[in-house]
Amino acid sequence: MNALTSHLRKYSVAPVCHDIQINGQLVGLHDSGVLWWPDESTLIVADLHLEKGSSFARRGVLLPPYDTGATLEKLAGVMDAFDPARVICLGDSFHDTGGSDRLPATYRAMLTTLQLGREWIWVTGNHDPIAPVRLCGETVDEITLGPLSFRHEPIEKIGFEETAGEICGHLHPAARIRRFGRSIRRACFATDGTRLVLPAFGALTGGLNVTDEAYSLIFRRRKFSVFMLGNDRLFPFTASRLVGD
Amino acid sequence: MDAPLLPNRFQSWFASRGWAPRPHQLQLIDHLAQGHSTLLIAPTGAGKTLAGFLPSLVELEARGKRKPGQAGGGIHTLYISPLKALAVDIARNLEAPVSEMDLNVRLETRTGDTPSHKRQRQKLNPPDILLTTPEQIALLLSDPASARLFSSLKTVILDELHALVTSKRGDLLALGLARLRRLAPDLRTIGLSATVAEPEDLRAYLVDQPNPEGRAFSHAVEVSGGAQPDIAILDSEERLPWSGHSSRYAVGDMYSLIKAHNVSLLFVNTRSQAEMVFQELWRINDETLPIALHHGSLDVGQRRKVEAAMVSGALRAVVATSSLDMGIDWGDIDLVINIGAPKGASRLAQRIGRANHRMDEPSKAVLIPANRFEVLECQAALVASKRGDQDTPPLRQGALDVLAQHLLGLACAEPLDALATFEEVRSSETYRHLDWETFERVLDFVATGGYALKSYDQYAKLRKGEDGLWRISNPKVAQQYRLNVGTIVEAPMLKVRLVRSKADGRRTPVGRGGRLLGEIEEYFIEQLAPGDTFLFGGEVLRFEAIRESEAYVSRAKTDNPMIPSYMGGKFPLSTYLAEGVRSMLATPSSWKHLPDQVSDWLRIQQDKSLLPSKDGLLVETFPRSNKHYMVCYPFEGRLAHQTLGMLLTKRLERLGARPMGFVANDYALSVWGLGDLSLQFSSGRISLDELFEQDILGDDLDAWLAESSLMKRTFRNCAVIAGLIERRHPGLEKTGRQVTVSSDLIYDVLRAHEPDHILLKATWNDAAEGLLDISRIGELLARIRGRITHTELPHVSPLAVPILLEIGKEAIYGEAMDSLLEEAAEELVLEALK
């Protein structure tokens, strides 16, 4: 182990999912924040925001440089458990356009190892509108596979044909519930059964509460559910039970 | 000691006002003339501020008239106060003697409100006397011009020193003083302070500490106490509440007191108490006496109006929080009413000092305890006041996050020599404990983040040159520093804006653009649901929604707010008063000073259970409503009790006792669960000595800290002060919270990957003294070893009633919402007495 990886820990992950249907397809929500599509042996992960720490550091905000390592290690644990044939990274995989270039060699090697023997698709996002450099994988703006479409930002329409089966990221959904005068806030999946927003997977990524106006452009008010990420399980709630920040 | 000390011009000025210079004023001139730094301890009204300035005025007068066109010689005297309002106030008061004596002295203020052109001019053409705040000193010292600006500095006056040194601002100031001493080696300091427990600490703070082994001290001048204050505890006809902090029972008494005096100042501990008392007073204000409200969350304009009305004598009473505690002369107050627990003897003394600014007349004060335990606390404070005892906290050890900020500032001013700076920093009393290794790590943190993983060298803020000196890597770093300077990290606040209610069945969206009422803590709003009502600014408001950084509220149609807004006092019970309360409890002969209701209560406790002993710990266990309770009485303050409660619950869980929750107040701590705790203890299955073993501060604490929101809040403050994350600036805030990096996430990542990081060390130091109060738990556990008394009771004891009543009012931990919540207070009380 060298200095870059000595701080990393092994994540062990059980490939147990919460199954739901999106546009008629059976998909599994996992408590790590990834989506598992068993019929296609495809793993979908959103908003990795790799090299966010160094992105801030360039501007003089010296955040801990451990976010890329932490994110990749967690991703490696998930890959170990599911062993997918295909991986779709749903945009904002790097925090800025220079991120893939800055990626330290050790992490580049880790990522390359994860890519071995699988199809790897980079969907572009607003943070990383171009293909990552010196990395394998196909780069697309969006991709449709059967009844599901994968893109970074959701189309801001409700109930149209093109939004059915949409799997997206970008919003970093988080939800808050309150009970007995205490409240708890977690990242979450958000879905109305026709489309699904994935939580951000990256270690230094915050969340935007699903009660925010931004979600009213993609879900009918209070007509959606969230699955909050817990330890080893998900906690489902209907939107009407949730509170704002 | 008279004529030579005070020039004629000053003597005749004193004479013309019919005054004579006071001995301590002359003594101070004498000490300073001989080059000695001096601490002046005097009660309010002793002419302390004038005494502080006289030596400088005398020296400046001797300098003679400046020739026209001759440049000023740099700043002669710095006056530093904790409040910018105080600096402005003092400047105004000082202008009178300066012009009346026709002294050729220019004095100016410099605060965050000073316009930038004036600040610029002050750097080019500095005044003789500059009145300012610790933050401004830090800013000036980060300027490349600082060496020139301060090279002829002779005197630094530190006002309200006792208040300054208890916080991180005191650390920042200590570091600033160390630098000022280097720039102006002949510098003398004057500390102005109220009476404190350890004057030696302040005397050491004022001077250079050249020797790491022994302490050096300044001279000291002490003015003895003035007249004994006339303090009484309210003897109300009303029934004394068992718990709570509202003092609502005594509002009638308060009103009578206000009527019987000219101007009263009513001090409370929290904003929400202020709101409640103010509202209740106006409810019974049949004579419509002018009674006003003053707390830090109110709109600034509104506060200024109240202050002006107070000075002009237009008010009969002001209900205030500590926002009015300090220094400024609010005119002729003839009564201070302290509502709720005093929390500390010195705190109380300083509040009472607000009344009657003439030291030869006694200040008059009435203490109004909000519940029975607070009666004991008030009585202990009364005894302390009679004896003149003080319980100001000991001097802090300088914080590492403040040091990080300071080092960056120094590097902005000039290339930094690590070793010389280390010696300079250690020459301040506050940082004398600092070792080289820690200093290096802090410097490394400033330069590149201080991570074991050295990946940020290319983004370094500071770089070491070939000459061995550290320089900022680009001018932006200095800009960043200036935006982040200071040690006050406000809890995130939301603006409160009045809108029309949605409750009237209007289907339109909440309207925009009502009046701003002030600001409120974000964490308070977070626990509200739309439609909840609460008190703010003397009105009952209905919470409507949050839009961006504003909380929308409407006027509620009720007099009774739904959300009890007591959020817990900010100040924990002082160790000194806690000891007083414990010894009073253990000594029945002292109960004769207590109201009958309280001494009866204690006698029944003695009869039904046991009294807590002075140095031991009483643990009671009893069943109640299918649950089993353990109540113990450490008297170590709410913060320490909360931490201890969390640790005990964890440990009981591990021991298989299935605890369900706990609640803590300033005096006691209760843990409950489904298992029979009495049986577990009496059968010896769980040993109380083991439960309260000192090792509880080890692993259990560590495990809990990973999740503790208190720890995360502390980390956020450290990260902001140390410059790791940027301050939120009003107006410059990015919208949408997903854009900023949450300090909680940084904490998690850092804790997982580099638990020894210097910023986590700084956080731990803070938490141990602050929100978690771990040092006090350590002392408690050591004190009670082998002195734990367990008593098994058939039902709740009289002493336990207050803490059980807190369940449901204070936050409950663990599995909450049990049957207790619904049970009426009266029922509990009856049970205790049967």
List key phrases describing it.
heterodimer; A: 245 residues; alpha/beta; Purple Acid Phosphatase, chain A, domain 2; nine-stranded mixed β-sheet; seven-stranded mixed β-sheet; 16 strands; globular; B: 834 residues; Rossmann fold; 5 domains; 32 helices; 15% strand
Characterize this entry briefly.
The complex is a heterodimer of chains A (245) and B (834). Chain A has helices spanning 52-58, 67-82, 99-102, 105-115; strands at residues 18-22, 25-29, 35-37, 42-45, 86-89, 119-123, 138-140, 142-145, 148-151, 166-168, 173-179, 182-191, 196-197, 208-209, 225-229, 234-238.
Describe, in plain words, how this protein is organized in 3D.
- The complex is a heterodimer of chains A (245) and B (834).
- By secondary structure, chain A is an alpha/beta fold.
- In chain A, 16% of the residues lie in helices and 29% in strands.
- Chain A has a single domain (18-241), classed as Purple Acid Phosphatase, chain A, domain 2, CATH 3.60.21.
- Chain A has helices at residues 52-58, 67-82, 99-102, 105-115; strands spanning 18-22, 25-29, 35-37, 42-45, 86-89, 119-123, 138-140, 142-145, 148-151, 166-168, 173-179, 182-191, 196-197, 208-209, 225-229, 234-238.
- In chain A, the strands form two sheets. In chain A, strands 8, 9, 10, 11, 12, 13, 14, 15 and 16 form a nine-stranded mixed β-sheet that branches. In chain A, strands 1-2-3-4-5-6-7 form a seven-stranded mixed β-sheet, with no helix packed on it.
- In chain A, a hairpin with a 5-residue loop joins strand 2 and strand 3.
- Chain A is globular, with a radius of gyration of 17 Å.
- Chain B has a seven-stranded parallel β-sheet with strand order 3-4-2-5-6-1-7, sandwiched between helices. In chain B, strands 8-13-12-9-11-10 form a six-stranded parallel β-sheet, with helices on both faces.
- In chain B, helix 6 packs across helix 9 (168-183).
- Chain B is an alpha/beta fold.
- The termini of chain B are far apart.
- Chain A binds chain B through residues 3-4, 7, 9, 52, 54, 56-58, 60-67, 69-70, 104, 171-172, 178-183, 203-209, 212, 243-245, and chain B through 448-449, 451-456, 459, 461, 476-477, 480, 526-527, 529, 545-546, 724-726, 736-738, 740-742, 745-746, 748-750, 752-754, 757, 811-812, 816-817.
